[in-house]
Amino acid sequence: MTQAKPRAKKLPLKERYALLTRDLDWEPSYVEREKLFPYTSYEGIKIHDWDGWQDPFRLTVDAYYKYQAEKDKRLYAVLDSFAQSQGHLGLADASYLNAIKLFIQGVTPLEYAAHRHFAYLARYLEGPAPRFAALCQSVDELRHCQTQIHTISNYNKYYGGFHSWSKMHDRVWYLSVPKSLFDDAMTAGPFEFLISISFSFEYLLTNLLFVPFMSGASFNGDMPTMSFGFSAQSDESRHMTLGLEAIKFLLEQDEGNVPIIQAWIDKWFWRAYRMSALVAGMMDYMLPKPVMSWKEAFELYFEDQMLGGLFPDLEYYGITPPRHVEDAIAEKDHLSHQVYKILHNFSFAAAFTTQTPSEEHSAWLSEQYPGSYDELYKPVWDKHARTEAAGGRIFFQGLPQLCQVCQVPMAFTEPDDPTAISFRTSEFTGETFHTCSNGCKWIFDREPEKFVQAWLPVHQIYQGNCGGPSVPEVLDWYGIQDGDNGEYKGSPDQRSWAEWHSGAPKQES
After folding, report:
1. In what helix (H) or strand (E) does residue 419 lie, and over which residues does it extend?
2. Using N-to-C axis directions, what is the helix angle for 108-124 and 97-106, rounded to 10°?
3. Strands 431-435 and 424-428
4. First-to-final CA distance of the chain
5. CA atoms within 13 A on the CB side of 26
């Protein structure tokens, strides 16, 4: 009679997870470790114990893909329902789509760039735990890119400006702002990339960028965008945790890491904040039914949650709030107005249309910005309204000067004087370079060798590298078609949307 074999002891979840992940790692035998992981030493960061990395989610590959597959099922059910029911006709107004055009041209390519570089980290970080965390985020970012493309492709069937968005991301002037940020991050070392994207972008600013905009999508009848936004936001919570774990891990490993990380926080807060200026203009001016102002979102998601909650905790490690944060706070009454005025001035060279705020929208802006809008910005929009009532439209005839770092046209004002343009200069190798703020000047002066190489659209146009010397030739090189840009009223999108609602037969153009 054979004796029954004793049952294997059931391991606790933490130990089982360790066996399935970290214990699958191995020490190299025929390749030197320095050659296997060549990029984790030159930034000056010291790591003494890679096993000190904590895994807050403790996901295995199997669990991760099951979880994501369930989310995809729910998302694509919403997309199919929206497409079959002609849901685009339920939008608050056709002008809402201009915000989505800016999103797919500016944000979706960044998701793919993040996918690529987190895959790079998944290969070159030495510890198995951070490698696996980077792998999960790489797949997350690819999923975000794909779901955004699939969601917005439905609008491409009916409206212009959604075509050639990846080509536009590489070429169009206002899209050099987000592209330059990721080019900067992807050419940094692995630890700086973690601080730039996982902490400064994902943790400090992702709620400020995603939550109000996705709520605005829902408020304006765009259920697919709301669905992919909140489907992605559950991933963003994991990304935020990765960012927080990354900075705590690096700070706890060696005291010498603290000043290096503080400098990165100072740089990347300002870089990410400057890029978010496009979102500020979109939130306040490009939603027909606005749900939350930029100022309100900034106070809630950054001032209260980050400055009031996170940074007091980081004081334990010797980390202080980002350099120039007071300048950002001083701009919260002005940022969105100044950015949208730039887009309005130059929308003849953009893949979306713009409009002067209506009386109703202007009243909302006045309510949201009682200390600045009526005095500084409403008179300008009133002038535009009078010109348009007479049959005209004001565009800026010429090319603007760009900031060498953030690449936004030099239209921001001094932190203590909203009537004076903020203008900074730096000298390097006998040349003068211009920046838009104290933050951008400080960043340039730290790494001038890097930022003198910036691909500035205005300079490239003047050098003849953008299709030709005339506006039509530049727009053709951008991939912008007739009707994508310029005046909102009477645009092909608006005319089609109105005709579909009225049921009137479409006339041949």
Report:
1. strand 417-421
2. 30
3. antiparallel
4. 92
5. 5
Question: Could you give the C-alpha distances from 175 to 105, 166, 196, 330, 411, in angstroms and in order?
Answer: 7, 10, 19, 25, 17
Nearest to 366 by CA among 386, 329, 339, 337: 337
By the 8 A CB rule, do 271 and 454 touch? no
- 145 or 22, greater pLDDT: 145
Q: State phi, psi for 311 to the nearest 5 degrees.
A: -65, -30
Buried b (16+ CB within 10 A) or exposed e, 27-57: eeeeeeeeeebeebeebebebeebeebebee
List, for residues 144-198, the tens digit of each pLDDT value: 999 999 999 999 999 988 999 999 999 999 999 999 999 999 999 999 999 999 8
- 417: region left, alpha or beta (phi > 0 left; psi from -120 to 50 alpha): beta
Read off the pTM.
0.92
Tokens 């350099």: give the residue: 323
Cα 9 from Cα 248, distance rounded (Å): 34
Write out the two tokens for 159: 């409206």
Whether the CB-CB separation of 333 and 295 falls below 8 Å is answered with yes
Is 209 in a helix, a strand, or coil?
helix
* Number of C-beta neighbours around residue 366 at 10 A: 15
Give dist(CA 69, CA 120) in Å, integer.
24
Question: pLDDT per residue over 76-107, tens digit each?
Answer: 999 999 999 999 999 999 999 999 999 999 99
What CA–CA distances, in Å, run from 503 to 124, 492, 506? Answer: 58, 16, 9
**Would you say 451 and 404 are in contact if contact means Cβ atoms under 8 Å apart?**
yes
Around 291, how many Cα atoms within 13 Å sit in the side-chain half-sphere? 13
Tens of pLDDT, residues 209-252: 777 788 889 999 999 998 888 888 778 777 888 888 899 999 99
| DSSP string covering 272-336 | HHHHTHHHHHHHHHS-SS--S-HHHHIIIIIIIIIIIIIHHHHGGGT--SPTTHHHHHHTTTTHH
Helix (H/G/I), strand (E/B), else coil: 402: strand
